[in-house]
From TrEMBL:
It is an enzyme of class 2 (transferase). It comes from Oceanobacillus picturae. This is Glutamine--fructose-6-phosphate aminotransferase [isomerizing]. The keyword Transferase applies. The gene is glmS. Coiled coil: none annotated.
């Protein structure tokens, strides 16, 4: 649809695409649901998921980060072991494959050459592949045995936003569908929870001014910034730091809270911005301990917590969503942080230097 690839009243595609996320969630709910509210996935995808004994997720960049979250869904809900691999690294140290492996390629564009090289290789070995992509008919989609569509609409900004959240939503649906196929007990209605996420995303995208203010106060002239989190939040830290570095050129890294003491804390100086994500009850105390450790060494800390876990000094409170789906909410303020940091530095938000939307060379 031509209107999808125009900015309309938006100054940048990235901002438009961040704002589209609630609609993408609702579209995914619609596309993956039957009229009587059952999950709607192809029977052959279901069969392939049910039959495999291990899943190998292959992806690059932001899609790799979505894969890290997807691993949690598939292991926790569908009880299948999952490995997540960076496409370009896979062939150097190819893991020992299980007896009945299933490969899942996650790719917004469906054209990433590193991922395709792995697909070609594993097809030669006779294994099956499922591609999760935003572009039906793309190379990775055509060459895989099965495809799941993201329904995110065209993503134009180089920095991926709505594709990441769409990938996570589709992976959650896939995990639940597999759990149902395996007749596992589940206390999780993905469509109901995704609808709550869509509403939370709307609340979040309405808070642009608050995020812009945080950027102005804390990321103005900084050279570097760190993101810390544990468990699921750690994956969002990796994605948040990628967003920030790719468009604002601030040197940014995401660290696991528990690893700080093993080296990273040496980087903390007076005023170093440290963004902490705290959406998981079981690690809330430990991540708060890490925040205190870096604050004691002079860091300028900003805690993004989920409603119910918040403390008075937190920089930003994220509306409550199901504990498994928190990345879908917590990533939105991270995307906005990156956006405003880039904007305030006069960077080319939609077309950052040296980067391409889709990397079709190995
Ligand atoms: C490029 C883009 C990233 C993207 C990555 C993987 O590096 O700049 O935004 O995450 O490729 O792309 P894919 O289309 O395979 O998801």
């Amino acid at each position: 649809d031509a209107s999808d690839i125009e900015k309309g009243t938006y100054p940048h595609f990235m901002l438009k695409e961040i704002d589209e996320q609630p609609f993408v969630m609702r579209r995914i709910i619609k596309e993956y649901q039957t009229e009587d509210n059952k999950l709607k996935l192809d029977a052959d995808v279901r069969q392939a998921m049910k039959a495999c004994d291990r899943i190998y997720i292959i992806a690059a960049g932001t899609s790799y980060h979505a894969g890290l979250v997807g691993k949690e869904f598939i292991e926790k809900l569908a009880n299948i072991p999952v490995e997540v691999h960076i496409a370009s690294e896979f062939s150097y140290n190819m893991p020992l494959l299980s007896e009945k492996p299933l490969f899942i390629f996650i790719s917004q564009s469906g054209e990433t050459a590193d991922s395709r090289a792995v697909l070609v290789r594993i097809k030669e070995l006779g294994h099956s592949a499922l591609t999760i992509t935003n572009v039906p008919g793309s190379t990775l989609s055509r060459e895989a045995d099965y495809t799941l569509n993201l329904y995110a609409g065209p993503e134009i900004a180089v920095a991926s936003t709505k594709a990441y959240t769409a990938q996570i939503a589709v992976l959650a649906i896939l995990a639940v569908d597999t759990a149902q196929a395996k007749e596992l007990e589940l206390d999780f209605d993905p469509m109901q929870e995704l609808a709550i996420v869509a509403n939370a995303m709307e609340v979040l995208t309405d808070q642009k001014e608050a995020i812009e203010e945080l950027v102005r106060e804390n990321l103005g002239t900084t050279r570097n910034a760190f993101f810390i989190g544990r468990s699921t939040d750690y994956h969002v830290c990796q994605e948040g730091s990628l967003k920030l570095k790719e468009i604002s050129y601030i040197q940014a890294e995401g660290f696991a809270g528990g690893e700080l003491k093993h080296g990273t804390i040496a980087l903390i100086e007076e005023g170093t911005p440290v963004i902490a994500i705290a959406t998981q009850e079981n690690v809330n105390l430990s991540i708060r301990g890490n925040v205190q450790e870096v604050a004691a060494r002079g860091a300028n800390t900003m805690v993004f917590s989920m409603k119910g876990l918040e403390q008075d000094t937190d920089a930003f409170v994220i509306p409550h969503v199901h504990e498994l789906l928190t990345p879908l909410a917590s990533v939105v303020p991270m995307q906005l942080l990156a956006y405003y940091a880039a904007l305030h530095r006069d960077c080319d938000v939609d077309k950052p230097r040296n980067l391409a939307k889709s990397v079709t060379v190995e």
